[in-house]
Amino acid sequence: MNTDWSSSVVARARVHAALGEPARLAIVDRLVLGDVSPGELGRELGLSSNLLAHHLKLLEQAGVIERSRSEGDHRRTYLRLKPAALADLAPAEVRTAPRVVFVCTQNSARSQLAAALWKRHSRVPATSAGTDPAPHVHPRAIAAARSHGLSLPRARTKHVDDVMRPRDLVVAVCDNAHEQLGATLPDRLHWSVPDPVRADTDDAFDHTLHELTDRVTRLASAVHSSGETP
């Protein structure tokens, strides 16, 4: 038997088995749109900590989800779908919004790139902001956008308080912003995307752009215009 074929079938069977239970499918449906901590997930789905831990263990063993440590407080753990593990899975939840606002700490890289990508994939308007904006957009972010056919026209950093409107769909694309917005904006999505500025290499920014492309593509299919003027 062809071992490559056999291992591929076994891996796919493991994934299908993991998704064959309603609670685990609900967990994956939630993670299609954004990352979440185990505690938040348990409360949203009404699962006890023991039962949730059991389902998460099986999903991790099947290679469907993974955990990441918060870059913000360094204590929290966030659950996320593994890249390409469920590339063809469509979001079960549909949201409406007049506008999408991507937020990171400095509004110098991740949120700027996410907004630029969004405009390629959706007609719903989008913009970006920061909780503690840097003086300017990072040069490597501009270069990475250009190399992938994106532009950051007249890109400048903005504070979230100067951008947010009541009915915006907010997507925090970093742990710090997610945790800082917790008390003021409880209803939002969160993507735990590592900060490429820490590494400050072209590869780090390209990797960030690749991850954001995957996430934006998934979310864009689940967000429809509310018909309001943004």
Automatic annotation (TrEMBL):
InterPro entries: ArsR-like_HTH (IPR011991), HTH_ArsR_DNA-bd_dom (IPR001845), HTH_MarR-typ (IPR000835), Ptyr_pPase (IPR023485), Ptyr_pPase_sf (IPR036196), WH-like_DNA-bd_sf (IPR036388), WH_DNA-bd_sf (IPR036390)
GO biological process: response to arsenic-containing substance
Ranges for domain HTH arsR-type: 14-95
Domain of life, per lineage: Bacteria
MF annotations from Gene Ontology: DNA-binding transcription factor activity
Phosphotyrosine protein phosphatase I domain residues: 98-222
Presence of the UniProt keyword Electron transport in the record: no
Domain HTH marR-type residues, every copy: 14-112
Swiss-Prot/TrEMBL keywords: Arsenical resistance
Pfam annotation, one family: HTH_20
Protein name per the record: Helix-turn-helix domain-containing protein
Provenance organism: Amycolatopsis rhizosphaerae
